[in-house]
Write a structure and sequence with these properties.
This protein is an alpha/beta fold. It has helices at residues 37-40, 64-67, 70-75, 86-116, 128-134, 222-238, 252-265, 280-291, 298-305, 322-328, 349-356, 375-380, 411-418, 435-449, 475-479, 485-508, 514-534; strands spanning 2-5, 17-21, 24-28, 56-58, 81-84, 138-140, 147-150, 153-159, 167-175, 178-184, 207-211, 242-246, 275-278, 316-318, 335-339, 363-366, 385-388, 391-394, 398-401, 427-431, 452-454, 461-463. The protein is globular and about 70 Å long. It binds zinc ion (2 copies).
């Protein structure tokens, strides 16, 4: 059996793993590549996917970094079936249409520029027509109902606890009479996440493909995060300014609505402070949440049974139209505005930032992962000015980065989830993470469980044979022959950050506890000296 990593290799976007076995060619996920221009170019060059020869797709969940290229591949000749869960099927419709709309708008905007300079009209990556052509190919299968999408292949979806309908995939393959089991974690959720169940436990796999987004860090607790949210709201309320929350339309927005509901119950949300849900997509997604309440966690189901609506507040206003959206910034006075996109690089949120980020007293609250190269990441990293709509805007608002709401498991939660696996010979592939985070996690997995760990590269192809050690698995030998300066630099930055962290700890801890930290510091210093000598 062969696997090829078409994306989410040493980066978080573009999830797609193409498998070949038993004369079939199929893939898990079909994500869009997001980030800088170099990375986004991959969305255009899709011939390498050979879309016309793919028999079927298994889709873990609706996020665009797992589904956003489906219409592009349909446009380029994919004719098979797309298997996913019922909520994902519904979310897919609104998210792909939205993505197509963004592509069309972007092409229109670029074309204007191009035509002015005498060049040709630019076609969108795909259109709403391409997205619509994708929907009839979708087959939905609920959690824990095994199915056979092709001969010799059995698939089971289990709750990944990430977003509504998100699954981790168990996949059994019989090849030449030899069985093997692959597990794709998809995006694995944070246990105790509001609205979602905890990720399902799996205890066997020959090959595991593991989300490593937060491979190098843990999240703060939810209570602490709620406190931070209260602080941001109180700060801007006092100053008569707005709280701007960039949030992904699916899941994070509904979670923020739930948080505000909780705060309001506790009397911690200023009474009558308007809350705007300013994203047509988020409004539609909220409807889909209401339609699939059986996929929510027990606590939420109980609340609903008691007649409560945890996704509603009396002061909440939905603003689907452009006019209503524009009106928000013509009104003065404090308000909470939840809008998309979550990384602030597209959509209505850009307008809210333009109107508010230069205002002292306003606050910008980041509640999700900010990928490298996005406007959100620049603000989180402390940019003094940002560029929006071709204009330099000063950052004067107070910036809050709250990471306790993540829909991804943090480092220790990933390790806890892994600890249930009983297969000693399991081989782990770290995917969906930045390389610096993956290296830290890989070391921990090797140390703690002794599993073989590989961090595949973009377009890498590997043969999977259960019980046989993969050629590239042995990490230290593999890293030796080639020097990639980019990675070394990234690695050094991570290690510097860890040294700084340790030093800060040393300053606060009593002398007796410092010996271990000192040892670790010395070890880090030794590694640094090694890297220095290589450079
Ligand atoms: Zn996701
Ligand atoms: Zn993802």
């Amino acid at each position: 059996m062969k696997i090829k990593f078409m994306g989410a290799a040493r980066t978080v976007t573009g999830s797609c793993y193409v498998l070949e076995t038993n004369g079939l060619r199929f893939a898990v996920d079909c994500g869009m590549h997001q980030g800088n221009a170099e990375i986004e170019k991959r969305n255009w060059d899709v011939d390498i996917y050979q879309p016309e020869t793919i028999d079927f797709f298994i889709i873990t969940h609706a996020h665009i970094d797992h589904t956003g290229l489906l219409p592009r591949l349909v446009q380029k000749g994919f004719k098979g079936q797309i298997y996913t869960t019922p909520p994902t099927r519904d979310l897919l419709k609104i998210l792909l249409l939205d993505s197509a709309h963004i592509q069309e708008m972007e092409a229109q905007w670029r074309s204007k520029k191009h035509l002015r300079s005498g060049e040709k009209f630019i076609k969108p990556l795909y259109t709403q027509k391409d997205a619509t052509a994708t929907f009839p190919m979708v087959r939905s299968v609920p959690y824990d109902e095994r199915f056979e999408p092709g001969s010799g292949i059995t698939v089971n979806f289990k709750d990944a606890g990430h977003i509504l309908g998100a699954s981790l995939v168990e996949l059994w393959v019989q090849e030449n009479g030899i069985p093997s089991k692959l597990v794709f974690s998809g995006d694995i959720g944070r246990p105790a996440q509001l609205l979602m169940e905890d990720p399902s436990i799996v205890d066997t796999a020959d090959f595991l493909f593991l989300d490593s987004t937060y491979g190098n860090r843990d999240h703060k607790g939810e209570d602490e995060s709620l406190d931070e949210l209260v602080e941001a709201i109180a700060y801007s309320y006092r100053n008569g300014e707005k709280v701007i929350i960039p949030a992904f339309a699916v899941e994070r927005t509904q979670e923020m609505m739930y948080c505000l509901y909780l705060l309001s119950k506790d009397g911690r949300l200023p009474q009558g402070m308007p809350v705007y849900l300013d994203s047509p997509l988020a409004i539609q997604a909220t409807e889909i949440f209401r339609r699939h309440t059986e996929y929510l966690d027990e606590e939420t189901k109980e609340l609903i049974q008691k007649g409560e609506d945890p996704l509603y507040l009396p002061q909440m206003r939905f603003t689907p139209t452009t006019e209503e959206s524009i009106a928000i910034n013509t009104l003065s006075g404090p308000a909470v505005v939840i809008s998309a996109s979550g990384m602030a690089n597209a959509g209505r949120i850009k307008h809210h930032l333009r109107h508010n980020i230069w205002r002292e007293g306003a606050s910008i609250v980041f509640v999700g992962f900010q990928a490298q190269g996005t406007t959100g990441r620049k603000i989180v990293d402390g940019a003094q000015k940002i560029r929006l709509f071709n204009e330099e805007i000063a950052v004067k608002a107070k910036v809050f980065t709250i990471n306790g709401f993540s829909a991804h498991a943090g480092q220790s939660q990933l390790l806890e989830w892994l600890s249930h696996f009983q297969t000693r010979e399991m081989q782990v592939f770290l995917v969906h993470g930045e390389f610096s985070a993956q290296q830290v996690l890989a070391d921990m997995i090797r140390d703690r469980f002794g599993f073989k760990v590989l961090i595949p590269e973009y377009l890498e192809e590997t043969t999977l044979e259960p019980g046989r050690v993969l050629k590239r698995v042995e990490y230290p030998e593999r890293a030796a022959p080639r020097i990639n300066w980019g990675y070394i630099l990234e690695d050094m930055e991570t290690r510097f950050a860890r040294i700084k962290e340790h030093r800060a700890q040393l300053e606060t801890k009593p002398w007796v506890e410092q010996t271990d930290l000192r040892d670790r510091l010395l070890e880090l210093n030794r590694i640094l000296t090694e890297i220095n000598s290589e450079i």
